[in-house]
């Protein structure tokens, strides 16, 4: 029933917009506002195209928008309130070197093989 294209594009537009205003950078508010408007104009064009091309009804697009917005707000809150602080505690905030990434890759590969998720 809901348009998955609408849900996905609104999810990304909402999440990106929330992140734009969450981060503390030296970017001016006008740059953030311009970025926000650009993201949502592109998203609205995709939504319009879904209806105009006859792939979805207005109700399907609206339901996709609602679903995408709810998931984006939920994920943003989860990211800001839990995951970012967790990553900072692990000291994984952009300071990984090649050897650390290689160790993480080997551990992931070993986990997948032990669980039998991929045949060797």
UniProtKB/TrEMBL annotation:
Pfam families: PAP2. InterPro entries: PAP2/HPO, PAP2/HPO_sf. The chain crosses the membrane at residues 7-25, 31-49, 61-80. Residues 1-78 form the Phosphatidic acid phosphatase type 2/haloperoxidase domain. Gene3D superfamilies: Phosphatidic acid phosphatase type 2/haloperoxidase (1.20.144.10). Keywords: Membrane, Transmembrane, Transmembrane helix. This is Phosphatidic acid phosphatase type 2/haloperoxidase domain-containing protein.
């Amino acid at each position: 029933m809901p348009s998955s294209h609408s849900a996905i594009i609104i999810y990304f537009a909402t999440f990106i917009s929330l992140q734009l205003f969450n981060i503390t950078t030296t970017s001016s508010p006008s740059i953030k506002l311009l970025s926000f408007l650009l993201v949502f104009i592109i998203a609205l064009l995709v939504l319009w195209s879904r209806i105009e091309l006859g792939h979805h009804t207005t109700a399907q697009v609206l339901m996709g928008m609602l679903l995408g917005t709810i998931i984006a707000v939920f994920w943003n809150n989860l990211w800001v309130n839990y995951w970012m602080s967790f990553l900072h505690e692990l000291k994984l905030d952009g300071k990984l070197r090649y050897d650390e990434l290689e160790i993480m890759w080997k551990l992931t590969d070993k986990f997948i093989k032990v669980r039998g998720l991929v045949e060797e």
